[in-house]
Amino acid sequence: MEATLFRSSSPLFLSNTNERISRKNLTFKSKNNSVIRASANGGNNSVVTLLDYGAGNVRSVRNAIRYLGFEIKDVQTPADILNADRLIFPGVGAFAAAMDVLNQKGMTEALCSYIKDDRPFLGICLGLQLLFESSEENGPVRGLGLIPGVVGRFDSSTGIRVPHIGWNALQVKKGSGILDDVAGQHVYFVHSYRAMPSDANEDWISATCNYGENFIASIRKGNIHAVQFHPEKSGVVGLAILERFLHSRSSLVKMKRETKRKASKLAKRVIACLDVRTNDTGDLVVTKGDQYNVREHTKENEVRNLGKPVELAGQYYKDGADEVSFLNITGFRDFPLGDLPMLQVLKYTSENVFVPLTVGGGIRDFTDGKGRHYTSLEVASEYFRSGADKVSIGSDAVYAAEAYLRTGVKTGKSSLEQISRVYGNQAVVVSIDPRRLYVNNPEDVEFKAIKVTNPGPNGEKYAWYQCTVNGGREGRAIGAYELAKAVEELGAGEILLNCIDCDGQGNGFDIDLVKLVSDAVTIPVIASSGAGAVEHFSEVFAKTNASAALAAGIFHRKEVPIQSVKEHLLIEGIEART
């Protein structure tokens, strides 16, 4: 990932014993009737050694390990690696930064020795890449050199979107061990760099994945395993993979699949969004706006209450949501680091929800009442430590883009630049909130105007999309097209594209807007606002280059089940995870 290492004062974020989860004889069922059982056996057999060097969100890995009934021992010294019965290395961040930490802590030799001795090892994401000879990321940078090959960046000039984000299919080889029975299933990837197959490393490869080209998705030799995808974010399939590694035998997990269609390529994602805020009595609730107005049209004018965030997120995970997104819409009024309820929502949700979690709202620089200054990076770090995989930046990204377009200078000081530099651009989503403004002639405005499908109130055939800040209350002199291209340059890894005009209307996504922006950038675009029927999802995927589609109200009110959306997409010939 494109990042430099961020290290907290406590690199082992989640080692507090009071945060540990003890589950015995656990049974978990998913919608596709996959079953996972785990039991803590006691003694050293239930202990997993985790190499967490202090960058990014590894809380989900910890939660998955504990969910499966195992305890965690954190690596503090090289001796902890050599004494491990099982070692998991969930690499997060940049290749060079990770190698620097391993070298500085004197762990490189111990790690190589452990792996060469064929002892149980599982590398995740960067934990796979570091096994190779070198990486081109900010390099060349020398790796551990255990597997022949160089890690290079995906080539976006071929038409693929980089980062590679989403649920893709594996081509699994025989004898893959922990990947037995996983062929035909989707797993979750999020990365910009990959290792390529070659004659020199062929005997290591246990699975490949196709994204513009075939790249190495997993390796296996003896007891050594590593995967490019994130099993801790791959739902029941990922939990099965983790459990097979932890038990060192494959017979414990029997995955019963009733899917009618096997995974074949990158799936279009269906994302459930939860707008979270405090109501008038101080309770944290999920709400939903009508063109961004979240209050009921009643005499009391109370905040619309559609449920409890942790419970709803858990239900959407069981229903098959590919991701869950939280938008803290009180974030612009309350100090984020003091917003403890939202942090607790993330912590509790991530204990039982094993798909990606995004959180947005209030991620910006702050000075508190005592004069202490907090950077947006510190705010984002708090969200990551609490279980977020991605953060969504709204108003602050607009201001950064305006400054960049005005000066042509990347200062590196904006929240967008800081967070993407530290955690990688795949961890940063920019949320765009545009409003449609009609014009008679595209030359009438300095921003990108397009011919629209539905003319304006006075017969106008063209429109431009004005970006807004502060929850849609303030328009800015920048268009959605210009903003999207600017934030991609500044380090955004994904765009969440809303539309104020369509919000809560149930008439479908703004296809003109989604096509405009998704054609303009090479990073993934999430279509949002307006979904009211399953046909709206297939329409936006068929007519635009959107990588994902997000909905809120229709899921909260149970008007359209998530599984109904997935089944409709499959009928329409659109790849979806089932």
From TrEMBL:
The keyword rRNA-binding does not apply. Residues 394-395, 431-433, 503-504, 529-530, 552-553 are annotated as: PRFAR binding. It catalyses: L-glutamine + H2O = L-glutamate + NH4(+); 5-[(5-phospho-1-deoxy-D-ribulos-1-ylimino)methylamino]-1-(5-phospho-beta-D-ribosyl)imidazole-4-carboxamide + L-glutamine = D-erythro-1-(imidazol-4-yl)glycerol 3-phosphate + 5-amino-1-(5-phospho-beta-D-ribosyl)imidazole-4-carboxamide + L-glutamate + H(+). InterPro entries: Aldolase_TIM, Class_I_gatase-like, GATASE, His_biosynth, HisF, IGPS_HisA/HisF, IGPS_HisHF, Imidazole-glycPsynth_HisH. It is found in: Plastid, Chloroplast. Substrate binds at residues 362, 498. Keywords: Amino-acid biosynthesis, Chloroplast, Glutamine amidotransferase, Histidine biosynthesis, Hydrolase, Lyase, Multifunctional enzyme, Plastid. Its main location: plastid. Pathway: Amino-acid biosynthesis; L-histidine biosynthesis; L-histidine from 5-phospho-alpha-D-ribose 1-diphosphate: step 5/9. CDD domains: GATase1_IGP_Synthase (cd01748), HisF (cd04731). GO terms for biological process: L-histidine biosynthetic process. Its EC number is 3.5.1.2. Residues 50-245 form the Glutamine amidotransferase domain. GO terms for molecular function: glutaminase activity; imidazoleglycerol-phosphate synthase activity; lyase activity. In the C-terminal section; belongs to the HisA/HisF family. This is Imidazole glycerol phosphate synthase hisHF. It comes from Stephania yunnanensis.
